[in-house]
Amino acid sequence: MSWKFPSSWNALKLPQRRAELEAILQELSDADIQRREWLGGEGKALGDSGIDLVVHFLFDDTDLGENAAATIGEVLFDLREAEAVASLAAVLDSMITRLGDTTSKEYVTDSEWPKVMERAKIASNILARGDSGT
User: Fold this and answer.
1) 54: Cα within 13 Å, side-chain hemisphere
2) Can you state the percent helix, strand and coil of the chain, rounding each to 5?
3) pLDDT value at residue 1
4) Which of 15, 38, 40, 123 could form a disulfide with 84 if both were Cys (CB 3.0 to 4.6 A apart)?
5) CA 112 to CA 59: how far, in whole Å?
6) pLDDT higher than threshold 90 for residue 41
7) Which residues contact 19 (CB under 8 A, 6 or more apart)?
């Protein structure tokens, strides 16, 4: 598969990871995507999305969940982006500690989920500004 990225991403070591992060932030901030792509049957994730993918990407596959600032120059452009991602990761980490390994449905119906969606939207907007070089 050939990836095409904005020219501003040439400064990043891992532009594909940034593309994945942006897709995840979009999913986390959009209830329609969550209903359509995450939830089915007994609250199991459908396809290649859902809370399991989010957790693995942020906390296992990258350092974004544990130390977003460490990914500056790799996935993120600056501290502003790192702080936005870290803020989202903090809420998710708290939920993971409390809810554990359960279905996407349990996460999206939890009382803390609106905070996840809000922080994902903020992070998405901040990353979009970085994409445009502003």
Assistant:
1) 31
2) 70, 5, 30
3) 52
4) 123
5) 19
6) no
7) 3, 5
Domain boundaries, the chain: 13-131
Tokens of 48: 């290649």
C-alpha 9/C-alpha 118 separation (Å) is: 25
- In sign, the C-alpha dihedral spanning 28, 132, 126, 80 is positive
Query: pLDDT, tens digit, for every residue of 79-133?
Result: 999 999 999 999 999 999 999 999 999 999 999 999 999 999 999 999 999 876 5
Give whole-number Cα distances, 74 to 9, 15, 28, 96, in Å: 10, 7, 22, 26
Q: pLDDT tens digit string along 16-26? A: 999 999 999 99
